[in-house]
């Protein structure tokens, strides 16, 4: 009887939580969204940079060049890179970009302080760029119908933040990573649906509501004035719905990516040799990183039932920019 009672209590709590979340989302998408659409202003600022990325990294030297070159290809103007105690040859990779004023390098020797790095970046550099995103070195923004991120963002410039949910990529059964190839050229197996978390483009006209919670990393909540009151507003998704973090992705198809026009490809595992090393490595954020658990690997890998090649449309353009292809 006690087990039955406890189960009913849990069901009631879950239902109550779902109702509250639904009512919150309804409020955001009626009152708040209506206000933004009617009274929100387009961004008329001319900044030093239009689109920038912030990355905190530790021992990512083999992957930094590709990550930089790819995002330059899709229209990112500048990068704020926070070095978290790397002991590899990252400076050899970054020096040309630093010398070319493409990368601003900040030494960040503090343990498990990723969110503090984001706060430092936003407080010190937001006035240089219209848009910024806090991205990781295994994440790549992929526009579908336009050539640059900046073009895509024009339709959202009234909003304080836009969340792009992850498209999760696995090993594809590869035991060893091929270092002669780019990451984006050798991993194609992925989930057939969006992951419930992702990364945001942040409109620097607005304040980030809180740096001390998980939201700032995946689904940034922003301060936005409505009726003269500063509201804490979750990010809008690319389908036009303001959604809570960790909840249903409103407007997205149940399966597949048919309506989406922007993706955040997350190459979570790469090949087994890369992932198995990361399982034993310290993390820029977590003391006890989720990657260290074998069940986390299988959770990600077993959902990879789909193949995706959208990012390949940028290969040639990237290699021309890199000087690999001469025209």
From TrEMBL:
Pfam families assigned to the protein according to its UniProt record, in alphabetical order: Glyco_transf_92
Membrane topology: Single-pass membrane protein
Compartments, as annotated in UniProt: Membrane
Signal peptide coordinates: none
Molecular function terms from GO: glycosyltransferase activity
UniProt KW Transferase keyword: yes
EC number from the UniProt entry: 2.4.-.-
Domain of life according to the entry: Bacteria
Name of this chain's protein: Glycosyltransferase family 92 protein
Species this protein is from: Segatella sinensis
């Amino acid at each position: 009887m006690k087990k039955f009672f406890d189960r009913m209590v849990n069901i009631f709590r879950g239902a109550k939580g779902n109702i509250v979340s639904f009512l919150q989302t309804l409020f955001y998408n009626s009152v708040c969204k209506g206000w933004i659409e009617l009274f929100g202003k387009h961004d008329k600022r001319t900044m030093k940079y239009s689109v920038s990325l912030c990355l905190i990294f530790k021992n990512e030297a083999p992957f930094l060049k590709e990550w930089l070159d790819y995002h330059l290809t899709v229209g990112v103007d500048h990068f704020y890179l926070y070095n978290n105690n790397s002991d590899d040859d990252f400076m050899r990779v970054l020096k040309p970009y630093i010398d070319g004023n493409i990368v601003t390098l900040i030494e960040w020797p503090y343990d498990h302080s990723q969110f503090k790095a984001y706060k430092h970046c936003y407080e010190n550099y937001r006035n240089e760029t219209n848009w910024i995103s806090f991205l990781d070195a295994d994440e790549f923004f992929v526009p579908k119908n336009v050539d640059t991120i900046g073009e895509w963002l024009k339709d959202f410039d009234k909003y304080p933040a836009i969340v792009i949910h992850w498209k999760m990529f696995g090993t594809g059964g590869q035991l060893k990573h091929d270092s002669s190839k780019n990451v984006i050229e050798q991993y194609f197996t992925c989930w057939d649906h969006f992951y419930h978390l992702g990364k945001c483009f942040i409109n620097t006209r607005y304040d980030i509501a809180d740096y001390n919670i998980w939201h700032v990393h995946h689904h940034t909540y922003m301060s936005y004035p409505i009726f003269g009151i500063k509201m804490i507003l979750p990010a809008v998704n690319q389908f036009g719905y303001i959604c809570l973090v960790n909840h249903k992705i409103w407007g997205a198809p149940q399966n597949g990516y048919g309506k989406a026009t922007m993706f955040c490809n997350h190459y979570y595992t790469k090949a087994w040799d890369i992932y198995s090393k990361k399982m034993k490595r310290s993390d820029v954020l977590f003391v006890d990183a989720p990657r260290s658990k074998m069940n986390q690997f299988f959770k990600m890998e077993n959902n990879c039932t789909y193949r995706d090649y959208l990012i390949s449309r940028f290969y040639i353009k990237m290699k021309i920019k890199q000087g690999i292809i001469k025209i």
